Amino acid sequence: MKKVIRYVILFSFALLEISPVLFLLAGTFMGNQEIVECVAPVLKKGDGYASWKLFPVFPTMKNIVELLLDSPEFFQMFWNSVKIAGGILAGQLIFGMPAAWGLARYSFTGKKIIYMLYIIMMMMPFQVTMLSEYLVLDRLELLDTSSAIILPGIFSTFSVFIMYRFFCGIPESILEAARIDGAGEFQIFFRLGIPLGAAGIISAMVLSFLECWSMMEQSMTFLETKSLWPLSLFLPEIEDGNAGLSLCASFAALLPAVIVFLSGQDYLEQGIASAAVKE
Predict the structure, then answer these.
(1) What is the pTM of this model?
(2) DSSP conformational letter for 58
């Protein structure tokens, strides 16, 4: 009996957590009139409380057709998001992996200080570094370009922190055996470090993708040209005439993040567990 009660409670909380996604999915197949009737008090079109339906009374594919066939801005911003996310992830692999490996496997003067600086930078919100980033990007003449978003994202310290924890878990005896066999440091990194730390690398990439796919403040601060905006800035205000399109676009923007999360869920759990281990 206790087990049943436990499952019921957990299921209730899980259903509560995913309810916004279910609302988006239901709204995707609703007509504008039905949506407006549900949220009329929110739009100041009526009195009382807003309501919602898990299943549309009159299902329609109009919103999906309009998004896919009559919204070229959606696809332009979608590929802008792909470009930004791909550039950031590629840069983090190129620069973040060696940085994490160096911090994890080598001893040098000031190592603890550098590690603490990484932690401090990881804890700082964008609002703290926004002005300094803006001034640097302005000096480099990168404002209002995709590079203004990609370049700061490449040097995110969070992905380094995740990979660092995994690289620390590689037994030193394996690396020493490779050195005795004549392997150089670069060979050890590429042939042992990367394969053995693959779970941490993948989990770091999954977390970074989830972050940069939904980033809004950076784009609003550094990008002025609308054709450069990512998908996170596409969603229009919910009004009488475009309520269904707005909800459909929101659900479509959420899908890539959900797919990436589900694909790397196992690695992500390992990364979180590893990052939680104290020194």
Answers:
(1) 0.84
(2) S
